[in-house]
Amino acid sequence: MHNKLLTNYDRNRRHLTDDPSCPVCHNGVETISHVLRDCLIAKALWLKLLPLSDNARFFDLNFNDWMVGNLRNGSTAWENLDWRMLFGFTCWYIWTWRNKLVFNNSRVDGSSKPNIILHAVHACVAAFDALATVGEEDRFIWYDDPPSSASLLLFGDIVGVAHPRMIGS
Ligand SMILES: [Zn+2]
């Protein structure tokens, strides 16, 4: 994952930019942990999604412990959703929204973000439930369909699994 998301910190190390700072909040070096957790925009979103009791520890962990710990945390979160899925989708959306803002100057309203993420996770759960009831032939058709599979493939990529069907297993 360190090598997959090209932050300004990485660009600076590769001499692709002189400025390693965060282009969103201008409040620190844009490392991967800054983008996904510590950037003001990311932190505001996490604070809306986190169970209150977890707040302090969530922001104190080093990046690897944070990523692995959350992807292994099988507790339930909002609306009875699996925290691992909510966490993974939130990371993916934070990165996607960061890129839209940086490259397209397109901003998503912060108050609508939790609902967008919850909707995506519910859709994913429904898709997996549907997959469990269809045959192999139907699965190929479903996976080949670009609009429905694109975000799942990217989600699979971000959590480092070879195939999205492995999520949650
Ligand atoms: Zn920032």
Automatic annotation (TrEMBL):
Reverse transcriptase zinc-binding domain: residues covered: 1-46
Highest taxon in the source lineage: Eukaryota
Family annotation (Pfam families): zf-RVT
Protein name from the UniProt record: Reverse transcriptase zinc-binding domain-containing protein
